[in-house]
Amino acid sequence: RRTSGVGLTAAITTDKDSGERRLEAGAMVLADRGIVCIDEFDKMSDIDRTAIHEVMEQGRVTISKAGIHAKLNARCSVLAAANPVYGRYDEYKNPMDNIGMQDSLLSRFDLLFVVLDVMDPENDARIAEFVLRMHRYRNPGEQDGEPIRIDGDVDNLATYEDKEEEEEMEVYVKHDNLLHGQKKNTQKLCSLQFLRKYIHVAKNMSPVLTREAAETISNEYAKLRTTDNLGNKSKTLPITARALETLIRLSTAHAKARMSKTVERTDAEA
Fold this sequence. Notes:
It is built from 13 helices and 8 strands. The protein is an alpha/beta fold. The longest helix is centred in the C-terminal third of the chain and has 19 residues, at 211-229. The relative contact order is 0.09.
């Protein structure tokens, strides 16, 4: 079944026992301050896509149904995946014709990635080798036929911090030939525990926008608007006032990745 707008935002249901109406939060409300992943985005109807316009713009859901009036926070990031209109991306058409979605919806996304299925024997061999290694790999200590625990990798949200566990955290992962393949270079892979801690610290940073970065963002936005007015056929996203907020968010995210307290010119240019 395809994703529905009610399942993403909120729904009014009737209790079977008492017959009273109640409000049930959708996926975007439950993922407040988190991320929502939507697959088969192109299979959604236009009415369901319109339902998430307010969420992506205001960060909240307004409900006025069955005598229930409420505003629910839905400050989440949206990661959506969709197929092209023709089933396969047509390189002879511009990206907007291949995507086939409303400009009002696409302008609410900060980034748009076009993933092409390029036929390359070497790349296909690497993908096949990786998939086969995943089927052969077992976690250390896992028994044959042991069921996989759903909550095995759930983050610990307790306020108490275990100092012993923090000291034992390793920054890099030990190389495993069955998991990572044959070691062909000297690059090291960061451990999952370290990446979680790094992302947690980076999200709590609140960098301040400097004057130099603000001038750079303003100039780049003006250039994008000028290019859009010239009628560039290869454009992917409509350049609106939301694009200015996109540049600010991307610059701020780059500063957070550097663990910086200020957004510099280099962040805006990146």
